[in-house]
Amino acid sequence: MPSYRITLNGASRSVESSDPDQPLLYVLRNALGLTGVKFGCGLGQCGACTVIVDGEATRSCQTPIAAVADRRITTIEGLGTPEAPHPLQAAFIAEQAAQCGYCANGMVMTSAALLARNPAATLEEAKEALAGNLCRCGTHQRILRAVMRAAGRAVP
Prior knowledge:
The chain is an alpha+beta fold and 156 residues long. The protein folds into two domains: 3-78, Beta-grasp domain (Ubiquitin-like (UB roll)); 87-150, [2Fe-2S]-binding domain (DNA polymerase, domain 1), CATH 1.10.150.120. 31% of the residues lie in helices and 15% in strands. The protein contains five helices and five strands; from the N terminus they run ββαβββαααα. It has a five-stranded mixed β-sheet, with helices on both faces. A hairpin with a 2-residue loop joins strand 1 and strand 2. Helix 2 (87-94) packs across helix 5 (140-150) and helix 3 packs across helix 4 (123-130). The radius of gyration is 15 Å and the shape is globular. The mean pLDDT is 95.
């Protein structure tokens, strides 16, 4: 069975998959037990499965495991801990930005990639970055406030 070396949440890992086209989402959830990444639509349209690959927000449901060999992958589990949350996670908590929480992984990971590239992102840049992430509960305003809080900007 083919093996793929990845750097996952800062640690070098080797994962096996008999199918090079197996979505990264399934490898993360099923083989590695990282259930923070969610299956939403399976079409790369909702953002619930977002992870960061080499600094870019990436839909793991549409990314084959073979495409991430020798690359750096960060999941929500790699951002922070309950004791020491990532500033964006702390902002989501402070703004009560998650209602059901299903979209939260994708919202946080997409926003983390944005703020890593542009720590002082504007509200418009945050809206643009999150345009492809769906939230069925309607907490978009709280999510945007959380991103602005993490960016050190006034909360709209």
